[in-house]
Amino acid sequence: MVFLNPDSAALLAQPRLLHVRGEPKPEWMTEGDKLRLRRSGKKFMDITEHEEFYADPVHALSGTANLPALTHQSLVKPLFEQVEKEHMEYVLRHMTSYYNRYYGGIHGEMSSQWLYNHIAKIIQQSPFRTHISLEYFTHSFPQSSIIARFEPKVRNFSLPLTIIGAHQDSANYLFPLLPAPGADDDCSGTVSILEAFRTLAMNGFTPKNGPVEFHWYAAEEGGLLGSQAVARYKKEQGATIGAMMEFDMTAFIARNSTEMIGFIATEADEDLTNWAVNLSREYISIPTEVYDLSAGAGSDYMSYTQLNYPSSFASEGDPLAGGKFPGNFDPYVHGVGDRMDVDDETGYFSIDHMARFSELAIAFAVEQGGWDNKWR
After folding, report:
1. Are 271 and 188 in contact (CB under 8 A)?
2. Do the bridges between strand 44-46 and strand 145-150 make them parallel or antiparallel, or are there none, so unpaired?
3. What is the pLDDT of residues 336-369, one digit of tens each?
4. What pLDDT, on a 0 to 100 scale, did the predictor assign at position 146?
5. pLDDT below 50 — which residues of the chain?
6. Interatomic CA distance for residues 75 and 367, integer angstroms
7. DSSP string, 63-99
8. Exposed, middle or buried: residue 86 (CB in 10 Å: 0-12, 13-18, 19+)?
9. Which residue stretches of the chain are H helix?
10. For a designed S-S bond to 328, which of 18, 114, 159, 321 qualifies (C-beta 3.0 to 4.6 A apart)?
11. What are the structural domain ranges in the chain?
């Protein structure tokens, strides 16, 4: 394929500094090596633009998770009835209609622009006095990360920040320029947190105990590039992050399995994960369990763990069910088969399952950030 397309040859030969999960130190490789690592099931962080961090790490101001008592049931639970699965399906169908959402190509750039504009329309429709900002977080590659921020009535930089994240890009592990609808990985997480954001915005959510941000990261599949850049920026700005929760793959229900919320303990903050499990069991109608990932696997929450920020990871089930990966995870990710219409002997794609994660994100935002609703 390299010889058929000179542009592809240049792309695959580009040198990158990669830290493969489980290896003691980063090594210089190429974009082509990323394909080899993905195919062998190895996860990595591309630290080319953050090499100085490994040479001179900057420690977090605080690695202690915010673990408040759960006291907002009367505000949170009524919001679940407002989660709109029709809206979720609309966004899913649009985002998966792109040829792919590859972070280094035009389709990844266009899908990011569409998502940004869609979020902006939601903000425009929110009630008066709802303070929400929206920004592109640009990178050296075409696709941008997106950050939407609910502000308290009075800004106080010392208050802890709450982050809810998902990644918007998709990848075909056979070759990055091939089709990759990425319905489950991770359009499902993108849409789950988008619907949580929309529901909160439409109800005039104003946090009381610190700002709440929703992040849609670029280039997770490229080695956590977007989340690394955002987390590093937060560190350089001196931000105190009280809690971060990642939503990656929230739609698939394996055949003959129990629908559930699965938290991943691997490289996540133990105290925050335990708190999140209690949160889920308080609010969500399906079971909640804690699982481990296979060696070398991971997602954007690890960018925060790397900087000593407390992070957690919610996903669709047990990735090691039956003793091996992908377990109860979607077996069709990273290829042309990661579609909304999956329904076969392996399992099925469920927007209803995604909605449970929207509810979890709503509860996480309100219980972490509080709700200043005196004017309502």
Report:
1. no
2. unpaired
3. 999 999 999 999 999 999 999 999 999 999 999 9
4. 99
5. 1-7, 57-62, 376
6. 10
7. -PPP------HHHHGGGGGG--HHHHHHHHHHHTTSS
8. exposed
9. 6-13, 31-39, 51-55, 73-76, 85-95, 106-124, 189-202, 225-236, 270-283, 301-305, 351-369
10. 321
11. 1-56, 65-369
| 167: its two tokens | 């990644």
The CATH topology of domain 65-369 is: Aminopeptidase (3.40.630)
HEC sequence for 144-192:
CEEEEEECCCCCCCCCCEEEEEEECCCCCCCCCCCCCCCHHHHHHHHHH
What are 279's two structure tokens? 């949160």
pLDDT of residue 27: 83
- For tokens 């991770």, the residue is 186
Whether the upstream peptide bond of residue 56 has omega within 30° of 0, thus cis, is: no
Q: Which amino acid is at 195?
A: E
CA distance 111 to 101: 7
* Residue the block writes with tokens 């929450």: 301
Which two tokens mark 41?
């099931």
